[in-house]
Amino acid sequence: MTTTVFSASLPIEEQLIIQKQVITGHRSGKRLCVVTGTHGDELEGQYVCYLLTDFLQRNADKISGTVDVYPALNPLGIDTITRGMPGFDLDMNRIFPGKKLSSLSDEVAYAIIEDIKTADFAIDIHASNIFLRELPQARINVNTAETLLPYAAMLNVDLIWVHPAATVLESTLAHSLNSLGVKTIVVETGVGMRITPEYGQRLFFGILNLMKNIGMYEGEISAQITEPTIVSGDGVAFVNAGASGIFLPTKTYGENVKKGEEIGQIVSPLEGKILSVVTAPEGGKIMTIRAYPVVYFGSLIARIIIG
Amino acid sequence: MKSPYREPFHINGFLFGKGEKSVAIVGAMRGDEIQQQFVCSQIVRLLCDFEQKGLLRKDFQILVIPSVNHFSMNINKRFWPMDNTDINRMFPGYNEGETTQRIASAVFEAIKDYRYGIQLASYHFPGEFVPHVRIIKTFNDITDDAQKFGLPYVYLKTPEPFDTVMLNYNWQVWNSAAYSIYAGTTDTIDKKDAHLTWNAVMRFLSQIGIITKDYHGGYLSRMLNDADFQTVMAERAGFFYKLKTAGAEVRQGELIAKILDTFNGSVLSEIHSPSDGVIFFAHSKALIMQYTAAFQVIGW
């Protein structure tokens, strides 16, 4: 059943509408919310929502409880290839929990929280932005790691990154929901403005696996579930551009590198010369690699899981 | 910093005097902060003039950075042109991080040791403000010196999570007395508000003894807290037919705007002032969405 979570009038005829698909199982049970599309340029979650909604609607007899699928928390952003909230120049994932009688963006955030806050679990699916490709990963704030790690490990991701707490992240959807007692896990996977079918399918099976483990799904899962590597904040090395130019990778994500090994080059097409050779500061597996070739001094080129 | 195909990116500062690092002034940090850059350029003009006439104390140092983000301003974008990140969400910065973290780090390194910090700031809502001083409430009580600007209002704002990565908050963490000055508009020049604002900064410099001549007086500022604001929302969407602008005195119940149907021009909604007072903020676009903050009114 399609339900409207929030609506507001736009100046000319149109409505801003945030919708969800509610799939109710044949027995009562827990409530899981799968949300995506907070950033309008992150589309990997679209495929996951499609797979999930299609499958669960056909297999409702194997489900206990309710699954709410929110494919577009920022519908104007998705429809207009805009990362933030059009008209406000706002990162929508920095305005939660929102409030009433403040602004449209705050009203939207407030309505989303009100709609999800009674759930038991939430999965907040992000792609990377257009600049980076990411291995499928769950990201957990260190303060919630003890509670969330066992569930994140069920999601069929390659790694779980337990990152330090930061005050600015208190305005994210995941932080707000976790504060309200909704066990919320952020998933990052793939690249912005594109869909990586393999990763979408893996996450789909991961969500089914989570549902099976928490008693919401009693069918089979036709996939091998990956056991993730758990990485803490200091277990990741960052590689930033040492020059401005065009980045040409020689490695890709998922590959292992040795300390000092070349990851790519930054070149000047005008001068026909190499401006900088990008090397691995530590040995390990590349979890993130630059997807967008134009780089400035400091642009993120790669992240490496150390060891 | 070099760029792939544009001219190298520089951040320029103007230094006045030597000795104690007294006041750092930062202008436009976003590409649409035209009013902020205009005000800052006028401050530089006046300080150059005063320096030439011997009206500046030589044992106090002032640093003015009119523009932190002209790479965006030159091409009519608000945020950093490459990745759309906001430099004013990157403080205190990180010199080994991403580009805008490095820019924030370089700027912060240059300004963090000054006793006073003044930022010409803008807000993320499209709208116009009454010129005012804004202080992010931290452990430092710096409200007394805020009066020295002589602007009509000083707003002591309770910080939200995003404030912790902005310049004002981080300046205070480094023990500078940090003031954000809102100069009315953002992407257009309002001469009256700009004049009021640059005079306020010059008055402040006079009050703390850096400018040696007396500067003419300003307002006895009214202190505002979060609870002093009444937000008036748009109940409908349409043309925003504004009858009152920021700074206008209004009576309770007075009609201050109408929202008109965008097809037939009929009145969909009337917006009335919730109290006697002054309009502190007014939405400035011709169109308005439902639930948008149309006005903020402060009561008497």
Write the layout of secondary structure elements.
The complex is a heterodimer of chains A (307) and B (300).
Chain A (H helix, E strand, L loop, with lengths): L1 E8 L5 E10 L2 E10 L7 H15 L5 E7 L4 H5 L24 H13 L4 E7 L4 E10 L3 H8 L6 E5 L9 H7 L3 E9 L5 H17 L15 E4 L3 E5 L4 E5 L6 E2 L4 E7 L4 E7 L4 E7 L3 E2 L4 E7 L1
Parallel strand pairs in A: 3-4, 3-5, 5-8, 6-7, 7-9
Antiparallel strand pairs in A: 1-2, 2-4, 6-8, 6-15, 10-17, 11-13, 11-16, 12-15, 13-14, 15-17
Chain B lengths: L13 E3 L3 E9 L5 H19 L7 E8 L2 H4 L25 H13 L4 E6 L5 E3 L2 E5 L6 H4 L6 E5 L9 H7 L3 E6 L8 H17 L14 E3 L4 E5 L4 E5 L6 E2 L4 E6 L6 E6 L4 E7 L3 E2 L4 E7 L1
Helix pairs in contact in B: 1-6
Main features:
A: 307 residues, alpha/beta, Aminopeptidase, OB fold (Dihydrolipoamide Acetyltransferase, E2P), four-stranded antiparallel beta sheet, 6 helices, globular, B: 300 residues, 2 domains, eight-stranded mixed beta sheet, five-stranded antiparallel beta sheet
Characterize the structure shown:
- The complex is a heterodimer of chains A (307) and B (300).
- By secondary structure, chain A is of the alpha/beta class.
- Chain A has two domains: 2-227, Aminopeptidase; 234-306, Beta Barrel (OB fold (Dihydrolipoamide Acetyltransferase, E2P)), CATH 2.40.50.
- Helix content of chain A is 21%, strand content 36%.
- Chain A has six helices and 17 strands.
- In chain A, helix 1 packs across helix 6 (197-213).
- Chain A is globular, with a radius of gyration of 20 Å.
- With 300 residues, chain B is an alpha/beta fold.
- Chain B has two domains: 14-223, Aminopeptidase; 227-299, RNA polymerase II/Efflux pump adaptor protein, barrel-sandwich hybrid domain (OB fold (Dihydrolipoamide Acetyltransferase, E2P)), CATH 2.40.50.
- Chain B is built from six helices and 17 strands.
- Chain B has an eight-stranded mixed beta sheet, sandwiched between helices.
- In chain B, strand 13 and strand 14 form a beta hairpin.
- In chain B, helix 1 (34-52) crosses helix 6 (191-207).
- Chain B is globular, with a radius of gyration of 20 Å.
- The model of chain B has no long low-confidence stretch (mean pLDDT 95).
- Chains A and B meet through strand 16 of A and helix 3 and strand 16 of B.
